[in-house]
Input
Amino acid sequence: MSITQSILDRIKLDSGSGIPPSLGKKLSYAAIVLILVFPFIPFIDNYWIDIGFYFGIYALLGLSLNIVLGEVGLFDLGHTGFYAIGAYTTAILNTHLHIPILILLPVSAIVAGLFAWLVTSPVIHLKGDYLCIVTIGIGEIVRLTMINNPLGLTGGPNGINGIDTPVFFFPIISSRQFYYLIWIIMGLVTFGLLRLQRSRIGRAWNFIREDETAAEALGIDVRRYKLGAFVAGAALAGIAGNIYASKQMSVSPESFTFMESSLLFCIVLLGGLGSIPGTMLGALAITVFPEVFRPFAKYRLMFFGLALLFMMIFRPAGILPRKRDSLETLMKAISGKRKRLKKQAPEVSTAENPAHPSARHDKKAQKTGNVLLSVRDAHLSFGGVMAVAGIDVEVERGKITALIGPNGAGKTTLFNLITGIYKPQKGSIMLNGEEISGQIPHRIVQKGIARTFQNIRIFPTLTCLENVLCGQHCHGRAGYVASIFHLPYQQEEERAMFDYAKHCLERVGLGDSLDLLASSLPYGKRRYLEIARALAVKPDLIVLDEPSSGLNDAETDKLADLLSDLVSDGYSILLIEHDMHLVDKVSDHVIVMQSGKKIAEGEMCVVRENPKVIEAYLGTDED
Output
């Protein structure tokens, strides 16, 4: 396991903690009032106002890194490089072309974001320590480029001087004016980030952080959202660079060292991953601590190191970890109306609901017949081991097809071929008459396949409702602008997602667990949570990988009843299972695999008498 993944796992152990919502709201109001009146407190001079300004700069930089590290879980130790791009963009364009500073504010954000997209696109597939090392390299390349003074633009080691101050109807010159400038921008950024957190974009980031494989297998375009996080974080860092350059009226490479990236990293870890108020608290500690203990400044790094050490031991989720929102909070954030939560969605009959599988069954059956999924001559090998060797499988609509066989027969590998995690080396996989072999997982989900995993892959630090909303993601279309400004179609989309997610949880008997963290559920209910998440995709085919694994007899019987009910609702199910009692009870058709090949198929009563099946499970006597 990588070092970075170990840190993330350690942090997740305590991620459910947090202060009560009512107290948190009061503290937030108190903090806003304190920020507003701080420059007017009698004993506060320009020196401390400047400290308040740099607190705002580091808070903005911390929030920009929090998108990448806290929301998506990508370790970035070169974030100062994007900060430098914003500062130098402002300095170069202002001193050479005399473009006003405030006009350069969005320009700096755009340039930093484009740079982030350019340098991270080729490496975004990297994980853990590898991506961390690459980002360190990116930050150092930016710094060294500024030192080398390309085309005479960056001023080399001396940097660029003579940068103008911002003008917004009046020149922004004094410490107090810069203080309010940075905190006005902080307010706008915080407003936008809070709304992104409570949107399908913020949830997609969190799904990727929790389990990238499960997120993609349920319809999340992982590459797109990772890149989006890097670009958004870099854009905010570029804004911070613009304001910093105009305040200092000069920039130089020594302001953008690896140590600055490390401090930003400390801000996010100390405050709490994904926590906006926590990140601000971490920035406060980083900026005020050295001033209060200035006589011990040379020991600053040692103190920071000890603080991180104790935090990881005693409070790994940070000083103020993010507390997951309840359904009521989320609904109020969308509409601002408490009564919306109490209003029940109207009942829609199966025939009137186009999203329900039964309503789509007849139309698609007319085009492709009764065969929903068809696998023809599929091959996949790993080195010299043939995991799937020319297998043919058909899954009929409205039925449960069970895939059985001894361990190592290739069942899960076949599932991974069907769901796009692996690409077949040969053969064809068709869903509703459309070729899907070789397509990436989130595209296959959009075609109508949802799955669960042999080893449960829920998102433990998210609520049950948020887990199920992952399945709804592929049915949304609201982007960054719609999510930030709560455009009407985005609000309706979110309400529809919440309503259907609630329905799916109720369908599997978890209607009373909406706001519980998934990690708090017992093992059996976690299996049902995975099924509810798959139902939220509104699939044509549900692919279940050993759903009864770890369940007792009573829970298995309930699972059998649930699967039968789902088929009655119009769903089709492809099932891997080792519990022959469950297979016998629910399956309409059974396929037996051994060594990557199909050795028998038919009804369970016929298959269990097949000599090849008996030999596969029990072996044969030696002569």
